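Notebook, bench 3.
Goal today: get a predicted structure for Aldehyde dehydrogenase family protein from Microbacterium tenebrionis so we can plan the truncation constructs. The sequence was checked against the plasmid map this morning, with no discrepancies at the termini. Length recorded as 458 residues. Pasting the sequence as submitted so the record is complete.
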Amino acid sequence: MSIATVNPTTGKTEMIIEPHSGLEVDQRIAEAAAAVHALRRTSFAQRAAWMHAAADILDDQAAGLGELITVEMGKPIAQSVAEVVKSAKAMRFYADNSATFLADAPLDDPTQVGASQAWTRYEPLGVVLAVMPWNYPLWQVIRFAAPALMAGNAGLLKHASNVPQAALFLDTLFERAGFPKGSFRTLLIGGAEVGAVLADARVAAVTLTGSEPAGRSVAAIAGDHVKKAVLELGGSDPFIVMPSADVAAAAATAVRARISNNGQSCIAGKRFIVHDAVYDEFAAAFTAQMAALVVGDPLLPETQVGPLATEPGRQELIELVDDARAAGATILTGGTVPGAPGWFYAPTVIADLPDNARLVQEEAFGPVASLYRARDREDALRIANQTTFGLSSSVWTNDPEDESVFISGLDAGAVFVNGMTVSYQELPFGGIKRSGFGRELAAVGQREFCNLKTIWKA
């Protein structure tokens, strides 16, 4: 198993890191289990002070951490720095709101259950294992770690093997800020070793963000051991444009949605479903803007699209586009591999996709957009719901009836009207169908890894 930083811009190996031995993994689980007992003796105010201190560390090191992220996974530097800042903001959000989110809730009239008092209380589950991807190497982890630690849980992180420097930074972050030793620990292990960690009696629950196969595997192990799981898996989000929409704004936003994070985001518009009345206008604007994007070294401020994070990831994208081309789809722009070193792929727009093309059902994890022409509202809704995914969605319309129909009819965990899907710490995040189950962020995300205890007093 290789745990290494391989710079996707150059293809060169920057650092190789030795995985943890079985003894080291056991020691780290033991430290996390001990930290749970220490955390339960602390107050929300104390944990909040530590969480604010951890957020300060991120803000103080934002520039350096941004460069680290870009070198490890290739996103444009401005986006990497923004990820660090966003992570710090979420940490402060949970520091300031956890006491409210997890406050005891008394029953208004306890006499109706024969009690003098009755209430519910949220308590931590214990050690929670997080299996996290490389595409947002800080944000994906922090949006789990901040609410989990503020609730009094401890965390174990199995990060993607191509972002080990980010994983090692996170291993020490919370302890540096004052949290008890072991409150958050990184496990440098391969995917094959996750099952044994999850099966360990000291681990209470698991959260995974990643592929559907990985989610299936983790969910099966969690189920076998009767442990709580939250899964955020793939997405092929529809981006619907109706006749009443501001087409120019929709096209510009569609470009940002598709190329954010070099196109490697689960919650991004991937399938652009456009009403026949405005299809030609949208397609022309969208294609022209995608073709004009600056592709290059992500450390340069003018770069808009960097390389894909891994060589296998680029190869999967190549195969999806080649399959669509062979099936008869039209490549409006892109569909090529630049000759430069690194794992680049040209921003691509594909139209006229036949039903048998893999792109119709599979997720394109890179700067590749699929265009669909819809006859009417019902046809747009049919196309939007035809995949097995149901993460998020975006609808562009100024017609109240359109808005109502799509909000109610879309099979998705979220609907954004006249805007691009974004994760906010104030709003729950997660999907349905094969995009997973459970929620992250907001109050409900924090409560996923708490025991809701009922107290009845005579």
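The chain has two domains: 4-232+433-457, 237-417. The mean pLDDT is 98.
Flagging this for group meeting.
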